[in-house]
Amino acid sequence: MATVTFDNATRVYPGTERPAVDALNLHVEDGEFLVLVGPSGCGKSTSLRMLAGLEDVNAGRILIGDRDVTDVQPKDRDIAMVFQNYALYPHMSVADNMGFALKIAGTPKADIRQRVEEAAKILDLTQYLDRKPKALSGGQRQRVAMGRAIVREPQVFLMDEPLSNLDAKLRVQTRTQIASLQRRLGVTTVYVTHDQTEALTMGDRIAVLKDGILQQVGTPREMYDTPQNVFVAGFIGSPAMNIATFPVLDGHAALGRTRLPVERSVIDQFTEEDRNHVTMGFRPEAVDVIPATDPHAIPVIVNLVEELGSDAFVYGSLTNEFGAASSVHSGAGDAQVIVRVDPRQVPAKGETIGIRIRNGEQHLFHAGSGERF
Predict the structure, then answer these.
(1) What three-state secondary structure class fits 351?
(2) What is the pTM of this model?
């Protein structure tokens, strides 16, 4: 097993000025499951491919353990990669697919068979070893791709969106299997996904990237409770956090007729860029529903109710008294807020409800830079 270190690793594609990955500094502990997450084009797959040796490193270096592998060929890095599209040989059986890398390396047939059977047992593939990939379901093919990586007994597993081609139910089932398998094997794993729910449920730690720049690294709980900037706040969590920018008057954020106290220590940190405004985030579950007539209520017009059985979410818009309602955004889009409500007392479409943010459950960010106070 081994650690993985990105030391100011940078990748600039020919013909472009902006780096796809810009001075990435990241350390993955021995045996850790680290998830790289971010929107399309943020540099997460490029980072993984740099680690695999499939992309050049234009500046900085990459280490596996204490060994600098920046200029080492992929085959000599002692890593195994699982791709999104499985990449199985269609003319080979499951057993031959899983053992192919060992065969190329000259491993004795008896050893190959033993390691393939052990991996198949772990992945519940024993009964499929003589089948061809075309006779398997998507989830079974992905497990074969996992098995091919396992039999090599590498120092590091690399996984590039391995669940993207599976249907929703199978994705949930397979991500549980991958996470438990990694903990059982104890192999250092770097996993790439654009799905923040996958990141939260699978990773020991999460690294969020945007435009090639690392935004924050932390445990799922740290990312959820203390996002370091507006981007991370809006990206991590499902449904997404509600985020809005409001003026601060007499020590209070002015939300329409509602006033929310802002601590003096926060106001003292205002910069010229903030223009005496604060960006406030609050999660759908961080509010109480109260009568719309309450003087402390933030009135929300119900546009849609999403009923999920154990939960219900109201997607609504702020009433006209907020004026610049377009400054409010959430996972539902601009000028929209998402509120979790009692699933047994669901408001009707078009109704106006009142909400109140619970004390201490709002997140405050600089209006100018978007960084957390």
Answers:
(1) coil
(2) 0.90
